[in-house]
Amino acid sequence: MPTTTFSLSNKVALVTGGSRSIGAAVARRLAREGAAVAITYSASPEKAREVVQSIEADGRRAVAIHADAGDPEAVRAAVRRTVEVFGGIDILVNNAGISILGAVDEITIEDYQRMIAVNVTGVFVATQEAVRHMKAGGRIIHIGSSMTRYAAFPSASVYTLTKGAVAGFNRSLVRDLGPRGITVNTVHPGPTDTDMNPATGPVSKIVGPGLAVGRYGRPEEIASAVAYLASPEAAFITGAELMADGGFTA
Hints:
By secondary structure, this protein is α/β, with parallel strands linked by helices. Helices cover about 40% and strands about 15% of the residues. The protein contains 7 helices and 7 strands, in the order E-H-E-H-E-H-E-H-E-H-E-H-H-E. A 7-stranded parallel beta sheet has the order 3-2-1-4-5-6-7, with helices on both faces. Strand 1, helix 1 and strand 2 (about 35-40) form a beta-alpha-beta unit. Helix 1 (about 20-30) runs parallel beside helix 2, helix 1 packs across helix 7 (about 220-230) and helix 3 (about 70-85) packs parallel to helix 4.
């Protein structure tokens, strides 16, 4: 278990897609650093409850909010609910995302639109609503993908398109929010052992040899990067894209 390094006492965080894998690890880590944490979930209420219960068992505050990241009004409502429950919002982690693989000439327009809705529109709407409540010292952290730097296998072009959009949003948003004392950064995980891409799954046979450290990442290791960027120690870091990928894109 990581030791406590970054004080987030009296901070409020919202982690979208926080019921599983990287999102759950981020929620638990931010709570361990002292933040009150809201998570959103779409299809995993039991897992969301488990995350909340584990945070509360450590003496921290947490709440789970049902919200489809592809539904703009649900996303806005989740931000507002976070503010209602905890009195504000200081940290937004745009983690919710989906991947539907398919050749570019075969993927359906419905699957394309769904990925855009969750991975791009959901990020924009959550950010837009959150900054309406943020004060100086606020933190916005996007979860991107190392695929934006190195696409190691076919059939992920639309997914990579969505994550590339997030990276562009990250770079430009700093100009809007820097004068308000709000930082914006993106963590790009490399191959990480998640429900979507398990270390024993078929993709691992393709990408595994490219990992300089010789293994998949752990969700907790991505959470450590997020915790740093959310902390006061990262006040001068904004517009950055942190590759947390075990040397995959080196």
